[in-house]
Amino acid sequence: MTTPSPILSLRDIRKSYGQIKVLHGVDLDIYPGEVVALLGENGAGKSTLSNVISGTVMPTSGEMKWLGAAYAPTTPREAMDAGVGMIHQELKLLPQLSIAENVFVGRYLMKGGRVDRKAMEERAQAGLKRLGLDIPPSRQVEGLSTANQQLIEIAKALTLNARLLILDEPTAALGGDETQLLFRQIERLKADGVGIIYISHRLEEIRQIADRIVVMRDGAKVQEFDRGDVPVRTIVEAMVGRSLERMFPAIPVPAEDVTLEVEGLTAPDDSFRNISFAVKKGEVFGIAGLMGAGRTELVRALTGADPIASGRVRLNGQDITPRSPAEAIRNGIVLVPEDRKLQGVVLHHSIAENIGYANLDELTSNGWITSKKLHAFADDFIKKFGVKGKAGQNAGELSGGNQQKVVLAKWLARNPRVVVLDEPTRGIDVGARSSIYALIMDLARNGVSVIVVSSDLEEVLGVSNRIMVMAQGKQAGILDRKDANDVSVMELATL
């Protein structure tokens, strides 16, 4: 049998932002009907390379060929018209538009000179159904959970009839059932001859879905495996250049003093109901549950980001039930949100500015902030948290993991009493996760109460003194560390 020609060929692709070199001469071929896993630590260049292929970023040099012809898209629309679709790690939906409008944005179906909404909704509904999502396509996107929005992004890609799909962390917000539905769709796309570039930090997924693995490090392709069932240790060693296992640090024993008390907290929309728990000084309190359990809604209300219908929040015995994020922050409660690009950082502002925005009271002198003082303040925390970037660099130029470190830095600079982390390692590589876990334990050792919400069951089990499990907006139970395991958590989560 003759080897098929690649649908996409990259040769010596380079990209620089000023003096910062992001890609260093990358060569890559993608063949029809295969899944190529593109792996590497945050900042390795995976997303930049994907953005070059999908027309979002122009390379500094190098050449690409698509179906044997020269290929140099200057916009995502050009790439889409050629047959290249991309699902970004960070959601790109327009909240004020309907699901169907988002699925077909920029390529509305027309009939008789008018937008054919019926046809768009029917095709969008078909894509949603393939992914097991039962939501009317006429519904507005605003207010949908992150997981549902991710599924809509995937449904959007499924309607493109693309020859190449780039999936950047497509399962980061999905549960096990949703992930398996996606994998079944990928198998169907492969059978139709679609090539797929699959980016994920969930290495256990790679064995299930990948035909080939390409590993990047520091902007270069460093290794390639001609199969997907490569041992995790081998992949990680290629990614980080050293042997590394995913390990959780020792968890400190909390004090007996209670810092935070939540009593009967209920949401106006009933997304969570009658939630009560207490967090001790220096305790790591995990919150687990399946998609739609109400975890994110709960912690957003707890930190003043969303309204509360009833219930109380007490800090050191005093009622401080927050009605706004500013109230929560003044009382020493901060939230590191699930969606860092939408809610965590200002992408077009510098790292220094992002860190400074949460600490203006520390930086202001007679109503003024000097650039020198701001940069010196930011430099301390850039160094402390290991951010790979300079104070004056735009946050939007950083990898997802480094953006997360900036979000952590800006809030922890305030020395809070309660830190709420919603999906703290979402989209963060195995090398960087250990530093986040170590940071959580440092906070606990210093007497800070930490609440960790995570879809990663291994993670929430590995970092928590106790775990509250939520199911369908209700509090299903609280487990001590010695009683918490995969089975006990999932039994409560499926009540």
From TrEMBL:
Query: One GO CC annotation, please?
Result: plasma membrane
Give the UniProt keywords, A-Z.
ATP-binding, Cell membrane, Membrane, Nucleotide-binding, Repeat, Sugar transport, Translocase, Transport
Record-linked InterPro entries: AAA+_ATPase, ABC_carbohydrate_import_ATPase, ABC_transporter-like_ATP-bd, ABC_transporter-like_CS, P-loop_NTPase
Cleaved signal peptide residues: none
A GO molecular function held by the record: ATP hydrolysis activity
SUPFAM superfamilies membership: P-loop containing nucleoside triphosphate hydrolases
Keyword Transit peptide listed? no
Q: What is this protein called?
A: Sugar ABC transporter
For this protein's source organism, the top of the classification is: Bacteria, Pseudomonadati, Pseudomonadota, Alphaproteobacteria, Rhodobacterales
